[in-house]
Amino acid sequence: MASSTKYSVKPSSKKAKLSKNRKSSSSGLDDSGVSGVTDNLDLYRQMYLIREFELACGENYSKGLIRGFLHLYIGQEATGVGAISTLRDDDYVVSAYRDHGHALARGLDVNRAMAELFGKATGTSKGKGGSMHLFDAAKGFMGGHAIVAGQLPLAAGLALAQQYNDTDALTICFFGDGSTNQGLYHETMNLAAIWKLPILFFLENNMYGMGSSIERVRAGGIDFYPGMATYGIPAAEVDGMDVLAVKEASELAVARIRNGDGPQFIEAKTFRFGGHSVADGQKYRGQEEVKEWEERDPVVTFPAKLIEMGLATADQIAEIKAIVDEAVATAVKFAEDSPEPKLSEIHNDVLA
Amino acid sequence: MPEIVLREALKRGLEEALENDPRVFIMGEDIGEYGGAYAVTDGFLKKFGEKRIKDTPISEQAFLGAGIGAAAAGLRPIVEFMSMSFTLVAFDQIVNMAANLRYMSGGQISVPMVIRAPTGAGVQLGATHSQSFETWLAEVPGMKVVCPSTPYDALGLMRSAIKDDNPVLMAEPALLYGAKGEVPDEYYEIEIGKADVTREGSDITLVSYGYGMRPVNEAADTLEGRGVSVEVIDLRSLAPIDMVAIIASVKKTNRVVVVDNARRRGGVMAEVTADLQQAAFEWLDGPVMRVGSVDVPWPYNRGLEQEVLTDADDVLAAVAEGYGL
Fold this sequence. Notes:
heterodimer; A: five-stranded parallel beta sheet; two-stranded antiparallel sheet; 7 strands; B: alpha/beta; 2 domains; five-stranded mixed beta sheet
């Protein structure tokens, strides 16, 4: 680890503490029908919702009801959920093209998100954005961006506005390991650091940029956080399969940013269980590697741990599953039943 | 009416906005301490401070992208590029982000940002510093592109650009920063998307914008001397283009030459030409004649560069070839 790294959160699930039954924060998924649950169960509910949402997406892609490119978040749920759970309503969230998980964790309406993937008029972008371009400005969810690393300076600019307006709000920017070889990655880190912008750079290192493993395309190994020493940005590594570890690391980073310490960087080691997109046959990696990561599936291990530690009952978990399953089924039905956009919509929203 | 140079007109527009709207700030390379490569923002840092006048690293993609983010959050950034040629470095952000953001978010997010960039050849800067990519950006949906040819237009268009809720590229003809013109003290704006008929006539229409207005006006003077009545149209805005004004003029004069200071191939005047032959074919007494700079990389040598640049003789030659005037 680089000597100038200011703090580090070890990728150890043991270190993470299970917090007891605090009230849920406001950024949860309020519209899935669950209320009054504890923090931990809320985290689980969000992860399970994302998992089921993504499975439903894959299924409807197979049916031809969702088209275009579809990048599923399956396997990475703990990172987005853990990080976004630490935010306030006036913070901004920016994502890349694998954006469904971040969008749902930020509280996007499940029905409208699904309808967007179906290209329907009721979608979050009226069917003009699609899977890679989810937005909900009212919730501070600023996309959904599909040029690799292109969302980084946008996020810096949002943070610049927060700083300019003398608030202690912040912007979290998610990006993958694939974006780290773009010039913009380095340009934005530098810009954020010299201007001390209130931004949390959140790298979801899932080990592959499409079909290229990090080892093949990056000099210097699979760890990115030590490189932040170049920019004087405090950086931490965290186990991306452990939602509480992610949450803890994010809380620390968020507190520092609100304190005026400038940009922070978290690298979560994570894994997508499926291909880059649903069109990906995964010829570039062995199934054994996938299986190893799947054994650490946060959507499975986290509730098991909650039960084991007496923080949740099997009934509570089952209840959440039932409610979420219904919410996702409802979303699919809503999307299917929604009208296509009118052709007259073509010319709307080009210019303000 | 008081006369000022175009640089001063731009400066006045920026200064007004900084004074009247706390959401407005400027960023770019060497705009603060240095005062701007073309001195448009000279003195601003001292007057408005570091929060409003931000020197950036040489990272065109990052600071342009940051401008987009700031605009998306409700500020009104003005981002300066040192040269239009350098916008190429940030084209991904301009096109994929600034221009597309509103549409792909279903109208949720707007980008009220002004991008300023000096454009055009003529001072021997060679191939990489002399290009006019405003013609490329003018074809991108979601963008507005303006290009002034006088101090009056520079101030009026700047005011409108800053108030506009869309990304607006202000292409500033580098050779005209020192050009003088009358600018009233009374407040006015110039509507983006409306062309200006700068000279009324009945025999032929000449259309151009920006620095191209100089050879066009010279050629018009020469033609008037020969007894030809010339109508001159300054586009002012390349996106949207005021085809209504151009078509109306051509229906009156039945002859038209379109003139671009940028390279001839492609670009705004190709669009104007195509639309004209479709919309005004029956009114035309001859072909729509198109003049532009030679389609080569910009040469350094003065003689070569001047030969490549569109000049009044090129315009007159086209008038003669197309219409025998």
